[in-house]
Amino acid sequence: MPTILPPSGNPLVFLDITIGGQP
Questions:
Q1: Model confidence, pTM
Q2: Do 14 and 4 contact (CB within 8 A), yes or no?
Q3: What percent of the chain is helix, strand and coil (3-state, nearest 5)?
């Protein structure tokens, strides 16, 4: 699972990136 910082501090998008690998 890649470690990616959430864009604009959005935790929901951050979870989407970590779980689904989607931007």
A1: 0.17
A2: yes
A3: 55, 0, 45
